[in-house]
Amino acid sequence: MSSSTALRALSGYRRLFRARKQLFVGDERALRESRFAIRAEFDKNKTITGPPEHIEGLLSMIDEAEDMLLHGIVRGELNQDRNVVEVKIGPEHESRMDTETMTHIDPITAETVEKIDGKSAKPKIEITKTSTDAKP
Asked: Of 7, 136, 125, 129, which Cα lies nearest the Cα of 59?
């Protein structure tokens, strides 16, 4: 691996760690699990050699993963009293979501699924927008 490729991989690693911190702020479990997942993926691929196209594909996957973390995932909080998942949509998500036709949110953890399935009906999704001045 050339030094420029190694630098791009290291830069991508750091960008992924910053993106996960931004997405999962305040959620220690998600921060811990995402740290392990990112590290495991980089460890798995650290000795990869091969055609430049393959290496370039792996590097582009870093960019795609960062974009997904920053723009493709929204956090919601399950409000069990009201049986709703409260989701705040930030300006970085608005251009990628059709909130008029969005009918469900896929839970990330099995624990969340158990909380939802324990209710007699699936919770309604309640979407609110954050102010444009708010930082994610």
From this structure: 7
Q: Which two tokens stand for residue 29?
A: 């479990």
> 105: which residues sit within 8 A by CB, 6+ positions away?
74, 76, 85, 87, 125
Tokens of 7: 């630098």
What are the tens digits of pLDDT across the range 26-79? 889 889 999 999 999 999 998 888 888 999 999 999 999 999 888 878 777 777
3-class SS of residue 124: strand
Tokens of 50: 């091969």
As given in the structure block, the two tokens for residue 84 are 């709703």
Q: Report the predicted TM-score, pTM, of the whole model to 2 decimal places.
A: 0.68
